[in-house]
Amino acid sequence: MKNRTNLVAKLASGGIFTAMRLLAVIGILVVSPTRVLAAGVVFSDGFEDGTISRWSPSTDRIPCPVVRTAVDGATPHSGSYMAECNWNGTLPSGDPAAFSELALSSWSYKSEFLIRLWVRIASDVDHLTGAKILRLFPNGGKHDQLYMQAYMNETPQYLFHDWLLNDVWQKSFWGDHTSIGDGSWHKIEIYIKQNDPGLSNGIVRTWKDSKLEQEILNVVSISPGMQWGMLHLMSNWSNPHDANNHCEWDDVEIYSDLGSGATGSMSDASITTGLVPQPKVTAGPKSPNSVSVK
Predict the structure, then answer these.
(1) Three-state DSSP state, 11
(2) Does 226 reside within a domain?
(3) What is the DSSP string of 198-232?
(4) Are 158 and 21 members of one domain?
């Protein structure tokens, strides 16, 4: 405190420019070390209202129900409710009940966002390859996508990532030697910074359980004129499987540069704030038929 008082006295003896420096110094002295950014939550759902009303009605799949207890007795990641989806391999792939899903058609962002969610694979899931748990598309859906697949036939049952960016398939990520299919809750985070028009300065990153798994830098991270904005929790299972293969979801958050009030950074997934209520979404997304689906 004595050093601070002496510094203020010295600066106060100067003119207007010194006074301006004084204000800057005072700002440095009193600002909290916690970063408060022009970013915040633009969508969140912990399913605590017992519904999926914040999600978009799917036009071609049945919706995932909200439950208190998973099929194998597990409890939500937090609170009293979670969503539970299912792959039913006894039905044709085009049947609406071949897999249930949660779909979100859009969210607000300018050029940067982070998706954070918790997922759990139940004990009834077949130990076979092909179970795609998530897809992310832009609004046009022809040239870009991310999909994540649980390799349930492997030991450990790792999480695979594959990015299509501006019509170019990126280097695939083949897991981190930890399991996604062990019955525990796992945190998944996806960060995208769109490239400036005409430049290859975009960034995509993914994390599992707070560990950075994949980073693609200096890339065209979205096709020209497109905007990311179709999130599908659950997708097709490309190999034979039985009727009961459940997957639970909880505490879904999307942060963006059009939100506010958060602390930390989206780019390193340190951003955090409480869940906030969101309005119902009415548009119904559908997976683009023209996309190369693996």
Answers:
(1) helix
(2) yes
(3) T---EEEEEEETTEEEEEEEEE--S-TT--EEEEE
(4) no
Q: Are 119 and 133 in contact (CB under 8 A)?
A: yes
What whole-number distance in Å separates Cα of residue 250 and Cα of residue 119? Answer: 7
**Taking the CA of residue 205 as centre, how many other CA atoms within 13 Å lie in the half-sphere pointing to its CB?**
18
Q: What is the pTM of this model?
A: 0.83
For residue 117, how far is the Cα from the chain centroid? 6
Note whether 22 and 166 are same-domain residues: no
Residue 234 lies in a domain: yes
Q: Do residues 90 and 21 share a domain?
A: no
DSSP type of residue 161: E
The tokens for 83 are 């969503």
- What pLDDT tens digit does each residue of the chain (294 aa) get? 444 444 434 444 444 434 434 334 334 333 334 444 579 999 999 999 999 999 998 889 999 999 999 999 999 999 999 999 999 999 999 999 999 999 999 999 999 999 999 999 999 999 999 999 999 999 876 799 999 999 999 999 999 999 999 999 999 999 888 999 999 999 999 999 999 999 999 999 999 999 999 999 999 999 999 999 999 999 999 889 999 999 999 999 999 999 999 999 999 999 998 444 444 443 444 444 334 445
Query: Strand 145-150 vs strand 131-138: parallel, antiparallel, or unpaired?
Result: antiparallel
Q: State the residue for tokens 């299919």.
A: 181
Report H helices in 35-185.
none
Identity of the residue numbered 274: G
174 shares a domain with 113: yes
Question: Which residue shows structure tokens 């190369």?
Answer: 292
